[in-house]
Amino acid sequence: xxxxxxxxIARCEGALDVVNSINFARDNSLLVSVRGGGHSISGKSVxxxxxxxxxSKMNSVRVNQRASTARADGGCLxxxxxxxxxxxxxxxxxxxxxxxxxxxxxLGGGFGRLCRKFSMACDNLISADIVTADGTFRHVSGDxxxxxxxxxxxGGGNFGVVTALEYQLHQQDPMVVAGDLVFGWDDARNVLxxxxxxxxxxxxxxxxxxxxxxTNDNERRxxxxxxxxxKPQDADKVLADLRRAGKLLVDSVKPVQYTQxxxxxxxxxxxxxxxxxxxxxxxxxxxxxxxxIIGLYRPDPMSKFFFMQAGGxxxxxxxxxxxxxxxxxxxxxMRWNAWFEKETMQQRADRIADVRxxxxxxxxxxxxxxxxxxxxxxxxxxxxxxxxxKRLVAAxxxxxxxxxLRLNANIKPTV
Length: 415
Ligand SMILES: Cc1cc2nc3c(=O)[nH]c(=O)nc-3n(C[C@H](O)[C@H](O)[C@H](O)COP(=O)(O)OP(=O)(O)OC[C@H]3O[C@@H](n4cnc5c(N)ncnc54)[C@H](O)[C@@H]3O)c2cc1C
Prior knowledge:
By secondary structure, this protein is an alpha+beta fold. 27% of the residues lie in helices and 26% in strands. It contains twelve helices and 18 strands. It has helices at residues 15-27, 78-86, 102-108, 115-118, 146-152, 188-198, 235-243, 258-261, 287-296, 345-362, 378-385, 389-399; strands at residues 8-11, 32-35, 51-54, 61-64, 69-73, 90-91, 125-132, 137-140, 160-168, 170-171, 175-184, 206-214, 220-228, 248-251, 254-257, 274-282, 303-309, 331-339. The strands form four sheets. Strands 11, 12, 13, 14, 15, 16, 17 and 18 form an eight-stranded antiparallel sheet that branches. Strands 4-5-9-7-8 form a five-stranded antiparallel sheet. A three-stranded parallel sheet has the order 1-3-2, covered by helices on one side. Strand 7 (125-132) and strand 8 form a beta hairpin. Flavin-adenine dinucleotide (FAD) binds at residues 34-41, 44-45, 55, 74, 95-97, 100-101, 103-105, 107-112, 156-157, 161-162, 269, 372-373, 407-408.
């Protein structure tokens, strides 16, 4: 869907390349886009006619075992961090597709299979190196430029190009107990109601992402991906009630290597897959929303509802402690359609219209959106950041007063 042509692509190999790129773009009034893993749903990491700063060659990770931290270059993918941390029996929250860029994901928030246990990726960001719009390299931490570190934890790519991120790591058994619990459509209401009511009462070590999908033989299913990152012997006890929420058609939950599980959706989300999606936070997963979803979902193997769970440690951070404000979210709800390259323009338009029509119905049950998935909604960005918007504008005024970095969920400078 995204077909833009930058005039120049700077394939940076270090912070100095980034400084030179930023200075060159500013001095020549070029539009700038910043590319990490290239997962921007709305295509913001590429631009027409401007300078694309490509960070993908900067991808090394170094773990400090003694301090339980990892320093990741600004172009690292999630998988780079997962793998290096696992060498030392540690982990931090990363996304559910291993080729997502760590910087893009973390700067907007960062949900993942460990976020209920270790909180969001942004909450684990201890310090960062950044080149701000004036071309200055800065190391930001709790002691230096603390206002900027706060803004990076949810404020997206608004403030500069991040050349390195330092994460808190945590002890984590490399083996987790994980897999899918798949139920038939007859049980959809019960399973969804169970997820809505009890999902966030589960221990923090359990993460449940729920998908409503259609099999290739056109049967609707409701699938919960369960990841238990606690003591393996406790998994069955924790999952017992969920397993009884309906008739199980598939139960693939078993001990598995965490880093391997983190790649399970890599291929279905490979670069080039055509998708259109809408997403927003659900705070109150009401019975009415369950009814709407059950009523709306028509059998179609290329169509899905997806719910990425929050709660647990995510909810114990105050909305103003970081720029990411959505701490009361039960989950992040997504509705999407995919299609093949061979589909006609009309079929593609129909698939997009289909998502929009469903979204028009369920959107009223949501409370704000995730800027990493929905960055085109400039009008609503202010309200979305709620109590944090004023502080974000202050940081934008200080570090990017001319809005050089504007291909993002844009915080408009006021100076
Ligand atoms: C298949 C898929 C799976 C996903 N899974 C998850 C998930 O599990 N959890 C979750 O929370 N989100 C998830 N997301 C959303 C994801 O967090 C955002 O799309 C994120 O922006 C991706 O970052 P990126 O570096 O890969 O993307 P890019 O397209 O490279 O960059 C997106 C934006 O991030 C900013 N950016 C990237 N790198 C830098 C940098 N070094 N310095 C400054 N700004 C930078 C820029 O503003 C850029 O426009 C997923 C998206 C996709 C497509």
